[in-house]
Amino acid sequence: MPELPEVEVTLRGIARRVVGSIISGVTTREHRLRWRIPESLRRDLPGRTVRAARRRGKYLLLDCGEGHLILHLGMSGSLRLLPLDAPLQKHDHFDLLLGDALLRLRDPRRFGAVLWTRGSVDAHPLLRHLGLEPLSRALDGRRLHALTRGHRASIKQFLMDGRRIVGIGNIYANEILFRAAIDPRTPARRLSLERCRRLSASIKQTLRAAIRAGGSSLRDFVDSDGHPGKFQRRYWAYDRAGAPCRRCGASIRRILQGQRSTFYCPGCQR
Asked: What is the pLDDT of residues 84-139, one digit of tens each?
């Protein structure tokens, strides 16, 4: 957390203001995030124009011409567009100044990242091994079926493997599998082509629904305007252990898979 929907919501919120803006300055109050924020950003970024903004998995990429700023929200981060005189709050670690506004990173747990690369951003060590974008046309039932062949891991753990499909974390893996009516313990290689078609459709439907709802806000996430997401109100399975299934009435169960909580309905998911 944040997962792909929250990052996509953030991207859509900041792109309208950031793209085309000239970076006028950089302020770093805490360099010690997951990786140290480079001191050189204060020298390298001012005067550059943000040409484009896009998402790759859970990473936000700002194209600045001769290089890219790589932003990651970690486990508790958010990016907000604010006026220059916005009061500081605890955990406000980094500001990108954009004329009469700023883009501010707040990260209580400091697992986020602010990095700079001059080479091909897709070849960066953090990005070059990432798998398929789940909302792209490249991921359909047939491609998912091919990807799962030979994998003994459970389908839930497969969905969370960013080397195969990017951006799906624990929350949305639970929700995707519920909507697809697939038991999360099922070995990935045992899914038929028909079930993979159903699963690929569920991946897209679930993630798009979450994006429309502004993502999920369980603790710290807010969008670029400071608004929390609402998708957590629509969970079918996640964090509902012991509650009746909204489809069949069976009790939602909780198990551990790969040291992460899995929630599923024994009546609906087979």
From this structure: 999 999 999 999 999 999 999 999 999 999 999 998 999 999 999 999 999 999 99
> Which residue type sits at 255?
I
Strand pairing class (59-63; 52-56)? antiparallel
Question: Which residues are within 8 A (CB) of 204 and not within 5 positions of it... i.e. 6 or more apart?
Answer: 134, 135, 139
Q: Are 187 and 247 in contact (CB under 8 A)?
A: no
Joined together, the tokens standing for residue 118 give 């001059």
The answer to whether 177 and 236 are in contact (CB under 8 A) is no
Q: Model confidence over 19-72: pLDDT tens digits?
A: 999 999 999 999 999 999 999 999 999 999 999 999 999 999 999 998 999 999
Tell me the one-letter amino acid at 190: R
Asked if residues 237 and 222 have their Cβ atoms less than 8 Å apart, the reply is no
**Looking at 29-166, which runs of residues are DSSP E strands?**
52-56, 59-63, 68-72, 78-83, 92-98, 101-106, 113-117
Calpha distance 164→153 (Å, rounded): 12
Alpha helices in 162-261 (DSSP H): 170-180, 193-212
Catalytic residues: 2-3, 58, 260
- Predicted confidence (pLDDT) per residue in 36-51, tens digit: 999 999 999 999 999 9
Q: On the CB side of 79, how many CA atoms lie within 13 Å of its CA?
A: 30
